[in-house]
Amino acid sequence: MQPKISIIVIVKNDRGIANTVAGLAIQKVPAPTETIVIDASDPTLLADIKNKYPNVHWYQFESAIANKTSIPEQRNFGIRHAQGEIIVFIDANCVPLENWLIELTHLILEGRETMTAGPVLPSDAKKQIARNPTVGKDGYIYWAPTINLAFKKDLWKKLDGFDESFLYGSDADFTWRWSDAGNKIYFVHNAVITHDWGNAKRDIRRSFDYGKARAKLFAKHPKRLTALLGDNLYVTIYTIYILGLPLTLYFWWYPLFILLALAKNIGDKPFKTVLYNLSYTVGMWIGFIILLFKGDYV
After folding, report:
1. Domain boundary at 195, 217, 245, which?
2. Domain check: are 215 and 161 in the same one?
3. Quick one: 170 and 46 in the same domain?
4. Residue 76 Cα distances to 34, 68, 82, 255, angstroms
5. Same domain (yes/no): 157, 206
6. Do 186 and 60 share a structural domain?
7. What is the span of the domain harbouring residue 184?
8. Per-residue pLDDT of the chain (298 residues; tens, 9 = 90+)
9. pTM of the shown model
10. Of the residues 195, 225, 249, which one is the last residue of a structural domain?
11. Which of 30, 68, 221, 279 yields a CA-CA distance of 20 to 30 A from 165?
């Protein structure tokens, strides 16, 4: 008997989920499949979308902690209600391309992999920045966001689920723990989804929140700090640049060093990329300061 696949979408106040469930409804499936939505919105906000797709298992969700971002709680809740042996995550406001599910899950169904991830392309490539983990020459990545991820449900049990103390970054923590246990995440280039990252203001704010989350991730996984000299070297470079800004009092031309960063990203929306990286770096260090003086943040 073929394993069952459970596709889980978590959502809060995002009507873009209409595009997501529409794309899921027409997917070709490689095995028996169910779609689950965990909705932390006001119960009336997405009711019309819910009613349009009666085959979707739609659960209303309320966080145990008032006014807290409930992302990891929703993920765990969704998996607990999933009947499938294979869990697939896709975010609200994402649209899967044709054969996405087949591409993302076939290696797991064949028993060749236990966790796979796919690329996320911006829905507006002219304005938005693509974000994907660095893929090794062997085709594997060392972490993955849940925006486009598949894994065996048993894996979730072994890792004790997503850490619900995180606001953001619980997916990185989850896949870091998987990698640290000696396991691999295969990147499937053909398992493509598109995502609307929103306007520039929203995107910059998101990068700040991601940076802040990275501080808590490093606090939980101190061995990963070596990434500041590897994949996250740009954070170290931007940190040095920011700390050096007082030198402008003596060397008026110091801020012009940012032109080097603009030149490096000349082919990929240089101004937005630099703002994104600056916001991420500032967020990370503010996160470290909050952890230092408060111990945690909720």
Report:
1. 195
2. no
3. yes
4. 17, 15, 10, 45
5. no
6. yes
7. 5-195
8. 678 999 999 999 999 999 999 999 999 999 999 999 999 998 899 999 999 999 999 999 987 766 566 899 999 999 999 999 999 999 999 999 989 999 999 999 999 999 999 999 987 766 666 777 888 889 999 899 999 999 999 999 999 999 998 888 999 999 999 999 889 999 999 999 999 887 778 888 989 999 999 999 999 999 888 877 777 788 899 999 999 999 999 999 999 999 888 888 887 778 888 898 999 999 999 999 998 888 765 4
9. 0.90
10. 195
11. 279
Asked if 147 and 229 sit in the same domain, the reply is no
Residue 185 phi/psi, 5-degree rounding, is: -125, 115
Write down how long the chain is.
298
